[in-house]
Amino acid sequence: MSHTPIQTENRQPKQQPHVMNQAHIVGEAIQSEQYTAVRRRIFRQLIEAIVYEGLLDVTEEAVQAGGLTLYRIPATDEHGNPVEYVCEGSRRLTFGRIRLTPKPIIRIAGDTSEEADSVAQFLLEIRNSLGSDDGRLTTFINEIEHTLLKDTLAQYQRAQEDRVINPAQYDECEGDIMDGHPYHPSYKSRIGFDIADHYAYGPEFKQELRPLWLAVDRSQSRFSISQELDYDAFLQEELGAEQHTAFTETIRQKGLDPATYLFVPVHPWQWNKIISSALLEEIREQRVVVLGESGDTYRPQQSIRTLANSSSPKKAYLKCSMSLINTSTGRILAPHTVSNAPHVSDWLHELVQSDTYLTEETRVIMLREIMGISYDRPARDELLQSKTYGILGCIWRESLHRYLEPGEQAYPFNGLTSLERGGEPVIAAWIRRYGAEAWLTRLFEAAILPIIHLLYAHGVALESHAQNMVLIHKDGWPVRVAFKDFHDGIRFSKAHLTAPEKCPDLLGTPEYHARVNRNSFIETDDLDAVRDFMHDAFFFINIGEIALLMADHFGFDELKFWNLVRQVMETYQNRFPELSERFSLFDLFAPTIEVEQLAKRRLFPDTELRVHRVPNPLHR
Length: 620
Prior knowledge:
This protein is of the alpha+beta class. The protein contains 20 helices and 25 strands. The protein has three domains: 145 residues, TATA-Binding Protein (2-Layer Sandwich), CATH 3.30.310; 190 residues, no CATH class; 184 residues, Transferase(Phosphotransferase), domain 1. Helix 7 packs across helix 8 and helix 15 packs across helix 18. The longest helix is centred in the N-terminal third of the chain and has 28 residues.
């Protein structure tokens, strides 16, 4: 791994709007057309998920025009009177997904028929049919209301600035692509952020920040680093020799030994809202020591907790622990995954480097997680564990900019389904330039082949949802892809790895963590669970959303789309007949697969895996 010294620029962070000005903006945004558009989107995604996951008995009636279906959802108002919600849509070939039309959802109560304008009211009026407990339902409503506010503010800002997405500017796209999860109803909840936090730390607002660096007691911390790196040398490169020396001197001036501490950056929000109070005793006892702000400025990527160095883009990304709920998931960093991160990355790197198909043909980029530190002092009692578990940690990930070759440009993979403000897909110019079938074929070759090869040839499934992938292109022509987020984003059965002896000894999921998230594990003996881990993230949402976009905006038939995907995969299989047993072992063409029920997970306790079986469009 090459880590040559990097020159830095001295840039000042942008200033966020004054509090009073923010209040005026919020008021204007809530009255804007963006508010209505966001509310309608949330309503559509909520009903699509509820119907698709089979959470309600819904009446379906054929609509004569356009092959659509009329969905009638029975409900009951607060006085016990019958109410009905009506919307139009269709069940699509793509995994049997439900997709509603842009028409507003209608609420019918007695003789009154009008647009449904309250998602909270809808959920309350169907709660008896849902069977969810009141606590979970209230939490879900809160997440949806926060999503409505925060996405409205982001979309309003986009409209005011009349932003255009430029697929040649990767770092800017991390702030300009603000769609969030295309299926999850509470795709931008950011529970924990108030309005000022949203403006200060939401990626859409492109504010620069400086992480706060802490020193943590090495004996109370988990630490791991890539076998190719030296801790002190790497930190000196990342911090700069002058700042590294200053931080070290800060420790000495307190009468402490620098060798007994590790340096960790934390997000300023996490320090202000969580760490400063939750680790009060540790700070007083100097097991945690404040060092100072970063000299470099950073900007949040779409995931919010991952920070990209805006002073020196080739320096590592910082994935910081944040006690934030977003897309209904806590964004702390589980200590065992922080410890595993460099070992998983070194292992995957070795697999790729030993495979000429991956290095010379697909030329896949694996953005390695090269160092991980987590302060993990055991809580006095399990009752207090949730307060401190995973709240202070960081994973350093390689910068994409180190890998781009002359002429190559990078674009977030989820941006392939983004629309400009006028409604035209960002990729429309590419489709016109290269032709839909030629462009899609090349995209599938670039994106699908390295993923399925890692599964078939090595037995490793990647959780390649759209935020975990980057498309590398030349003027819109797909060239190759980059993958990231491996510490908890892989799954495998050790007995079915091609080279199990190369698999590192990884920390298993602690019992406490497993109780909180039943789906958080990387090793299993269930081969369908390995296959579906990749299938769910990559084909179901990632490629599936492209299929729906191509059909709706370009008239590219879904059956033709999936036949094209299958053709690319079968061409691969014909090339590697020696892997035929592996093709059966991980049958990506099975009639059905299991995918997560993301809405159901919000409405019912995480006492079991919430999955359902859906038709696979790759099945012939």
